[in-house]
Amino acid sequence: MSSSRSDRKKAAKELMRVTKTSPSHRAAFGQIPNAFSTLLRPLSESKVELHLDLQEDLITTVLNLSTDDSNKAEMGENPVAIPLLIESMKYGTTETIINATAALSTLTQLDSNKLIIGKSRAHVTLLELLRAGHPLAMREAALTMTNLCTVHENKTRFIEIGAVPVILQMINGSMLVDELLGILAQLSTYPNAIEELREVDTVPCLFRIMRDSYSGITKENCAVILFSVCSKNEAFLRELWIEETNNRTLAELADTGTERAKRKAFDLILEMRRALPSLRITT
């Protein structure tokens, strides 16, 4: 990019424009040697937030370029790209923060990038955005977390920094319920996450969502979490039985849910029968 500050801004604006409108330019960009390092050099030479307009244009260009599959691996392996995206998720205009998060989300579509991003401490920034970011940034953060949580190490990282109580609080507040239930279902098979889920009123919350939701996937994720929380725990199975006696939510799910939801619902009913043989439990 041009060396003077004014020329850099003009070049960044033009590059943002052409990479937004032209797929061929996005693909061609990645073929240029050291293209991504050169693009990001103005941000890597000083604090990213010092030149907000230039930062916004460059990060938007990164987002545009990341949508081309041929660029994803090179961007993930570039030593400055992911760190600068994470910095721009913390400092910058609202548009910059949203676009930086969206770019990171796009990069997580590639499996090798999930490992790289997981080691970069992006999970801390993502959880902060999820907790208190702009609504669009929160949604992008949730999508990024969903993609990252297909990797075991990343699930452990999110649990260790307290993602479970944050997600539960947001679900109870009716925020991004469908998206966050998907993340919680991924985390709920881990012992530390199960302990945290058992410390709050998870069962009533999940049953309320199952009764109110029209989404088969949402109901499925609720059933997955319920199985993790209640399985092999008599106290929680008894709570489950009370709910089932009053509303027959699991019986209905075992009949009408997705295939996975049907299996989980049926397994929970069997668990109740085994653990509480004196109680009348029907399907």
TrEMBL record:
Gene3D superfamilies: Leucine-rich Repeat Variant (1.25.10.10)
Keyword DNA damage set for record: no
U-box domain residues: 5-272
Keywords carried by this UniProt record: Ubl conjugation pathway
Domain of life from the UniProt record: Eukaryota
One protein family per Pfam: ARM_PUB
Name the UniProt record assigns to this protein: Germin-like protein subfamily 1 member 18
Species of the source: Hibiscus syriacus
